[in-house]
Design brief:
The protein has 751 residues and is an alpha/beta fold. The protein has 29 helices and 28 strands.
């Protein structure tokens, strides 16, 4: 039996075609309604419209733990083999957690979407749900790339580009001529509705568009209960030029989109429906998880503002799509592909699972299961009747125990049992970098040195050794890998020295100009006074590289430290030019994260400063090496501040510091899961002084090894090295010009 968990209108729409596709295969199904958006106007009308009824309706609570518990009680009674969750609401997340806690198989429809906006609760919901899911039904190749890059590829048949299920049926609908100068509006997101100033700005602007004295558009607006509650009164009293409608059935909403010339919405689902029905859409958000819609030119992002919204909105509404709405979300058979993934020859499919023997698995057993899942795509379960394995007993020992630091065995792994490798304890030891905890083998800066590492001494740094150990365990149990094409390589850009000269206060310019004159730094004076572009301004160069090499993934990290010390020399992020430059960079690298100050202790304050430029808190961080003393560096990281940390590798030595090549969850000392760690293997300073050709060969070799181990290559560099003439401003940049040439040669040769 399969249970579908839904709770919001878009989920009902996605449920119907999947339910029918499974029913055609004779699958027993039940529908659990979370109660999140339950009221006759928004739920009953849709179930009646589709001819479906929920088998059970829960009472929704503001307490997520209560919602999860209520779902667990129902699922424990029904005992479905597979649970299906949809999209990115709190119903999605609670359902995923409930299924996981009961060890039920989990499928996620619309997996892999990312907006990189931490202000949106949907982002946290979709990320955690993807981590818990056994099947990922991704709507696009972009979503597939996100899953691969985050180490969430479960393999062929389980992580699938099915296309968008909302396209099923809509793509075949005939074209309908819209009413002239007509706009359909939907609005429901908390950022647009709950803030009074923002809400009234949007309402008054759209009302002006409808006013006969101004634009005179015909504006139809189905009123969402959330907006109605926030307004507190009949909207027609304050906004009479708008045609206010009650919540519409899905069929009526489709007809309303077809009648409209333009759709204005903050809904993810309506964005896609507008595209499938070939209507230009204006999206009232700072970003969208549906990146392909914006790239198509048929959807326009319009960040809502509390003031001066009229002219940008008028321009966006008047814009038109010049493309022919190509099929960017599949062929309209998503439900069929999903059903085929879950049902084979009349029976329900089980996810690929290895079950090993252990009567009472500890938290460490469960965490190494997560790591094994990341590396191989196979689930690792525990049972008294499971298969025998080489168990040294180390996973039964508390992580704080000194035995985790010893690792004295000279075999192929740090831990053994009866002379046989204990691959799982070894994977956990490496991934948590247990040898570094409390170590006194530090350099003058307080950094743990690779020369003291057991990983380095045993030759394990040169490859993602945990992947080799996991592969050996699979061979022992005659398992076959099913991983698909790897994600593209990633180049990290540390934006620490944003500008050499531009953007600093006048006092700074005068002092540094006088210093350069006294020291006879004529090249710097020439670059400062006679060059049109700042020597460190790499924006145009990096934008060109992105366009030229789309198979390369780029990830920027911005230093915004408001205070300086001996190691922080960049343009502070509170300067006006810095804010504008970071906003421009954010447009080409929307997943931009934070590069905290060298000695900064208040990462939250610096994240808030960066948020002033990005419009949202960063979800990714990359700490300086001095901040990486373990386990304290990760224990001090607040829960929920950043869901990824990209601080891996050694300052002076390349290699896989954790033995991992894919992103993996960090286990905090209290037994809870922390952020996700994203390993990088090398950076520019590791090849300082080498020529471009040898650097290109080195990068090819690194990528070949990464592909052989089943993970993408991740390397790091610095923003200023890609500037027009960085060495003119700083002679220390000169040795790295060969690095930039070598990187470009590598990218060109692999294209």
């Amino acid at each position: 039996m399969i249970t579908h968990i839904v709770g919001a209108r878009p989920q009902f729409i996605k449920l119907l075609p999947f339910y029918r596709a499974l029913a055609a295969k004779g699958v027993e199904q039940k529908v659990l309604h979370s109660g999140q958006h339950w009221e006759p106007a928004m739920s009953e009308v849709f179930f009646a419209d589709f001819g479906l009824q929920a088998d059970h309706i829960l009472d929704w609570s503001i307490d997520m733990t209560s919602n999860q518990s209520n779902m667990e009680q129902v699922l424990a009674q029904w005992r479905p083999q597979t649970v299906v969750v949809y999209g990115d609401t709190y119903s999605t997340l609670c359902g995923a957690r409930a299924a996981s806690s009961l060890s039920l198989n989990l499928a996620h429809v619309e997996a892999g979407l990312r907006s990189f906006n931490s202000n949106m609760p949907e982002e946290a919901c979709r990320v955690e749900t993807d981590h818990l899911a056994d099947w990922h039904f991704a709507p696009s190749e972009t979503a597939m790339q996100h899953l691969r890059a985050e180490g969430l590829d479960r393999g062929a048949g389980q992580t699938i580009n099915t296309g968008d299920i909302m396209a099923d049926g809509l793509m075949a609908m005939p074209d309908v001529k819209p009413d002239a100068r007509s706009i359909l509006v939907t609005l429901h997101r908390n950022t647009n509705v709950d803030d009074k100033a923002m809400r009234e700005s949007i309402l008054s602007t759209i009302h002006d568009l409808a006013s006969p004295d101004k634009e005179g558009y015909q504006v139809a607006w189905p009123l969402h209960p959330r907006l109605r509650k926030a307004m507190g009164r009949d909207p027609s009293e304050d906004y009479p030029h708008i045609q206010w409608l009650p919540p519409l059935s899905h069929a009526d909403m489709i007809q309303a989109i077809q009648r409209a010339e333009v759709v204005l919405t903050d809904s993810g689902g309506v964005q896609k429906e507008a595209y499938f029905l070939k209507r230009h859409c204006v999206v009232l958000r700072t970003e969208t998880e549906w990146k392909e819609l914006i790239a198509s030119g048929c959807s326009t992002l319009l960040p809502p503002m509390a003031e001066d919204l009229y002219y940008p909105m008028r321009a966006a509404v008047k814009a038109r799509c010049e493309s022919l709405f190509p099929p960017i979300y599949g062929d309209g058979k998503a439900a069929e592909y999903m059903a085929n993934a879950l049902v084979h020859e009349g029976g329900l499919v089980k996810p690929r699972t290895l079950t090993l023997a252990h009567a009472n698995p500890s938290n460490l057993h469960h965490h190494v299961s997560r790591l094994f899942h990341v590396i191989t795509g196979w689930r690792l379960d525990w049972s008294e009747t499971g298969m025998a394995w080489s168990d040294s007993g180390q996973l039964d020992v508390a992580l704080e125990d000194a035995s985790w630091m010893q690792c004295v065995d000279e075999g192929p792994t740090p831990f053994v049992a009866s002379s046989a490798p204990d691959y799982l304890a070894s994977i956990l030891w490496a991934a948590l970098r247990r040898e570094e905890w409390g170590s006194e083998s530090l350099d003058e800066h307080g950094r743990y040195q690779a020369v003291h590492s057991v990983m380095a001494q045993r030759g394990w740094l040169s490859t993602a050794i945990c992947h080799r150990w996991a592969g050996a365990l699979m061979q022992d149990h005659q398992l076959v890998g099913h991983r698909q094409m790897m994600a593209q390589p990633t180049v990290i850009i540390d934006v620490d020295h944003l500008r050499a000269f531009d953007g600093y206060p006048l006092s700074h310019h005068l002092l540094t100009l006088w210093r350069d004159l006294l020291k006879g730094k004529w090249t710097r004076l020439y670059a400062r006074l006679l060059q049109d572009k700042d020597p460190f301004d790499a924006h145009d160069h990096l934008a060109m590289l992105q366009l030229s090499y789309p198979s390369i993934r780029w990830q920027a990290f911005a230093w915004v430290g408001p205070e300086r010390n001996d190691h922080d020399h960049g343009l502070p992020g509170d300067r006006p030019l810095a804010k504008e430059a970071l906003r421009l960079l954010h447009r080409i690298m929307p997943s931009m994260g934070i590069h905290p100050s060298y000695h900064g202790t208040d990462v939250m304050a610096e994240s808030a400063l960066l948020a002033q430029s990005l419009g949202h808190l960063p979800l990714r961080q990359r700490r300086h090496y001095l901040k990486m003393s373990l386990p304290d560096a990760y224990e001090d990281l607040p829960h929920g501040m950043a869901y990824q940390d990209w601080s891996m590798s050694y300052a002076n030595s390349p290699g896989y510091r954790s033995g991992m090549g894919l992103p993996y969850p960090w286990l905090r000392q209290d037994g809870t899961l922390g952020h996700v760690v994203v390993p990088s293997v090398a950076m520019d300073q590791h090849v300082k002084g080498r020529d471009a050709a040898s650097i290109a060969r080195w990068l090819h070799a690194l990528e070949a090894d990464a592909m052989a181990s089943g993970h993408p290559l991740v390397i790091a560099s610095h923003w200023r090295f890609f500037g027009p003439n960085p060495a003119w401003a700083d002679a220390d940049c000169l040795p790295y010009l060969e690095w930039v040439k070598g990187m470009k040669q590598w990218m060109k040769e692999r294209a």
